[in-house]
């Protein structure tokens, strides 16, 4: 019986630990996505004043969960770790029950875009985790400590370094692994034909305590303090034969021109190359890349490629942007949340060909000289550049294991040298006698 208890305790230790590791890792990879989800919570609970701190909070939560998971899985400082995890679950389990009952957000964002759970699934997951934690509290003497203090200290600092690096990449460039729907290789034209854009689609906006529906042809100017909430689709838009396909509504994508006309289909069905400058908010867009944007725009004009800036409908911000940058390209409008799903940087860049996403990038990472040296059809930058997610997952796992790989031979060398020094010291003492 005792052996069974030990086995169950060890399994609970690993499952709880790795659940927290996965949850933290998904947030570390995409801290901006986590901050967007936090802003949804802040808005619902009337904590809008915290919105300016959402990215910092996202970093703290992500790295905290990540490190806490490793403490649990490896069994270091077991009493303190169990107390902290119990406190965390005591807060979030009732919260997820409230989310399941009220459904203020579509999903809790526990695992980012890596694993999307409904609110009820999240609550069920938390109940299971809480049950395992209760088991661990009553059987903590059977938890296993897998590393000694020195090894764990070396390892945990290495893991924290990996977490900070991934979070920095996700914050100031793009997420190291893209789990969102607008990743390279996605055929938006196929998606469009499987579920046509309909005038029945509408968006919900909030202003103060007022919540209102707007059809796509009457999206409000967000300078009037309207805040986007969600895109709602018409019922029964997909035919039975479309079952199982990736639906257009899943991407929640639309684009309007300056006359508020829906040009989504025109953009997606555009033949040839289409260059998209993406900015969820031009008021906050970095001006460090104005020269790069201008070069890309001139390159598009010279080669008869379409060039658009997709941003939110904020006439004041657009006018200021044009005055600061001299922008002459056409502005299209969508919601900030949609654009942030497409790209995490502000501004960012996406290249389409015949409605297929070829690649997207932070403007700082684009090889401008290489891109503009020839027509897109004549070099690799004009081809699909999909991200090999399995390959990147492998590298993350390797980076997490690397501190141990480095530590073990160092420890062997250290022990060898200490033994040699002690041996010489003993020989010297023996001669003195």
Concise summary:
By secondary structure, the protein is of the alpha/beta class.
Please characterize this protein's 3D structure:
- There is one protein chain.
- This protein is α/β, with parallel strands linked by helices and 433 residues long.
- A hairpin with a 2-residue loop joins strand 7 and strand 8 (356-362).
- Helix 1 runs parallel beside helix 6, helix 2 (31-44) packs across helix 3 and helix 6 (149-172) packs antiparallel against helix 14 (389-432).
- It is globular.
- The protein has helices at residues 2-29, 31-44, 54-74, 78-102, 119-138, 149-172, 188-194, 248-251, 264-268, 290-302, 315-325, 336-342, 368-371, 389-432, and strands spanning 202-207, 210-215, 227-232, 273-279, 306-311, 330-333, 348-353, 356-362.
- It has a five-stranded mixed beta sheet, with helices on both faces. A three-stranded antiparallel beta sheet has the order 2-1-3, with no helix packed on it.
């Amino acid at each position: 019986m005792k052996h069974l208890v030990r086995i169950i305790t060890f399994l609970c230790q690993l499952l709880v630990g790795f659940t927290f590791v996965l949850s933290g890792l998904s947030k570390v990879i995409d801290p901006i996505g986590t901050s967007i989800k936090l802003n949804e919570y802040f808005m619902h609970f009337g904590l809008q004043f915290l919105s300016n701190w959402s990215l910092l909070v996202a970093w703290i939560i992500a790295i905290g969960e990540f490190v806490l998971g490793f403490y649990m899985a490896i069994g270091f400082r077991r009493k303190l770790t169990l107390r902290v995890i119990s406190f965390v679950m005591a807060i979030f389990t009732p919260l997820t029950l409230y989310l399941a009952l009220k459904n203020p957000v579509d999903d809790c964002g526990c695992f980012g875009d890596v694993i999307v759970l409904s609110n009820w699934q999240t609550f069920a997951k938390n109940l299971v985790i809480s049950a395992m934690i209760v088991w661990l509290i009553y059987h903590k003497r059977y938890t296993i400590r897998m590393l000694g203090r020195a090894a764990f200290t070396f390892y945990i600092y290495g893991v924290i370094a990996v977490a900070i690096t991934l979070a920095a990449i996700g914050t100031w460039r793009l997420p190291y692994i893209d789990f969102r729907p607008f990743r390279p290789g996605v055929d938006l034209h196929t998606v469009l034909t499987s579920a046509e854009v309909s005038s029945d689609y509408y968006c919900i906006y909030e202003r103060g305590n007022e919540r209102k529906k707007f059809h796509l042809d009457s999206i409000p100017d967000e300078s009037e303090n309207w805040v986007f909430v969600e895109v709602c689709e018409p019922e029964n838009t997909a035919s039975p034969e479309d079952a199982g396909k990736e639906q257009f509504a899943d991407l929640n994508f639309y684009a309007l021109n300056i006359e508020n006309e829906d040009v989504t289909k025109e953009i997606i069905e555009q033949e040839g190359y289409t260059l998209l400058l993406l900015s969820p908010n031009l008021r906050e867009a970095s001006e460090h890349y104005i020269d790069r944007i201008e070069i890309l725009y001139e390159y598009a004009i010279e080669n008869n490629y379409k060039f658009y800036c997709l941003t939110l409908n904020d006439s004041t911000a657009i006018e200021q942007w044009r005055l600061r940058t001299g922008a002459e390209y056409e502005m299209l409008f969508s919601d900030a949340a949609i654009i942030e799903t497409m790209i995490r940087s502000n501004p960012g860049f996406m290249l389409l060909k015949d409605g297929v996403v070829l690649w997207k990038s932070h403007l700082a990472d684009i090889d401008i000289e290489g891109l503009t040296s020839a027509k897109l059809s004549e070099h690799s930058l004009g081809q699909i550049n999909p991200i090999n997610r399995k390959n990147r997952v492998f590298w993350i796992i390797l980076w997490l294991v690397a501190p141990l790989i480095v530590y073990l031979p160092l420890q062997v060398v250290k022990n060898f040298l200490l033994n040699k020094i002690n041996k010489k010291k003993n020989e010297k003492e023996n001669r003195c006698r």
